[in-house]
Amino acid sequence: MHPDAIFEASLASKSCVLDHNFKIARDKSWDNAAVKRLLKLYCGHRKPLLGLQLGLGEALALSKLQEHIHFLATDFASAALSVDPNGKSLSRSESQASYSELGRIERTFYRFETYCNLFRQRERTWSKGFCNFRGLQPRLDASDRQETFFENFPPWENEQLACVREYLFNQVSIPFNDVAAHCVDWCKNEWDECYLNDDWEHPENSIKERLMSHGLGYIRRLVNCTTFDERCGLLEGPSAHDNEFLFAGFLAQSCGRELMNIESLARCSPNDMDKIFNRAPAADRDSGPREAWLWAHIDRSLDDLYNYRWEGHRFLRLRGYVMWDMVRWERWGLLNEEWERSPPKEWDPEYFTGSGTKYCYDEIHESFNIRHEISRRGGRGWWAPGDESGIQWPGGKVPRDWPPKKPAKPDMEELIRSAKQRDVFAKAREERARREAWPSDHQGWVDFFEGRQSSKS
């Protein structure tokens, strides 16, 4: 374990105990008050709790978590340092993270695990129309986490958490997109289409938010799955989603009402800057993360300072821009330049995903309908356009009515000719009805018969 990550590791360990055993101490029941006490106890001085004692089970769990974090942190650094924050390729020597940078990354992964333990969706059952959280209180609202969690860390450390989330989002996208595009079982119920038709690559995708909330151990197992069946076994299905996890917490952040009317960070007074930067103690003394965050936000209004939907910052997060030492930033020489607010050309914010998949509503809709029809006929397994070799049919036999016959495309000239004929016939019927119309009043009958007599003469 990196020495710089001991504080976050001890916090993750205690939050894990609190989450799984529903207790922070033997005489205190698990509730939101326990969450607040835990964060206040740890985050008040940013040091490991003195006298922390771990049982054998807790120590083994922390050791396993460290194994996951070291693996993911190394992969994160390798992916983030493939290019610099301006999109320029880096040499092999420049793409190696320093010891202190790896510690910073590991520290953020521990913080992510803590957030999962404290704020994931709690298991619930339904009874007589009411939701029962098995005696547990519902988790804190996203707005309440601003004071309880995010205000314990300076803004660039919360941005570090956003970088880790962006990385993990792309990691779960690879297995999820594979199953969502090919699994027949996921299209069994018609109402599941409303979840699958959501843009898979949108940063607020609630299904992937749910997947990430299960923690780093689950994410690593999911990422390491190499076969379609293994991925299906770990994924819960399209109806399992969470709209109130980490991204909702990011959106609920603010710098305080008293600062929201300031046009930009560049116009802040030293006193206002102090309120933003020194609201919580920083984890390390290196100024690289702080200066990088300021470089990327200097022209943002304080009302829009924590706009996590902005695609330009999403690109920077994939580059892990607030993870690097000041020495690296000085070597890049970017902090003295104005950052190009438009993402690089290779960045496609509408369709980008780490898996390389492009979202297309029409294709997903057609794919869902076909797989739904296969499921209705008892089929299961893997399907792709033009390839049905992975479908498992009942009894190993393809149904006689499969594939369903597609209606022949109509001849447009014949349709136009038929429409004209129908129009002629309709006009003829109207004229005949008008001539043979029966009067509805007495005078009408007189006029009708006089007309007939005059026509005979």
Q: What's the total number of strands?
A: 6
Mean pLDDT: 78
* Separation, N- and C-terminal Cα atoms: 117 Å
Number of helices: 18
Strand order of the largest sheet: 1-2
Order of helices and strands, N to C? HEEHHHEEHHHHHHHHHHHHEEHH
> Which residue ranges are poorly predicted, with pLDDT under 50 across at least 5 consecutive positions?
19-29, 125-133, 344-357
Over the alpha carbons, how many angstroms does the gyration radius reach?
32 Å
- Which percent bin holds the helix content? 40-55%
Structural class estimated from helices and strands: mainly alpha
Q: Name the shape in a single word.
A: elongated
Q: β content, as a range?
A: under 5%
- In this structure, how is the largest beta sheet organized? 2 strands, antiparallel
What does it look like?
The protein has 457 residues and is mainly α. The protein is built from 18 helices and 6 strands. Helix content is 50%, strand content 3%.
Characteristic key phrases:
457 residues, mainly alpha, two-stranded antiparallel ribbon, 6 strands, 50% helix, elongated
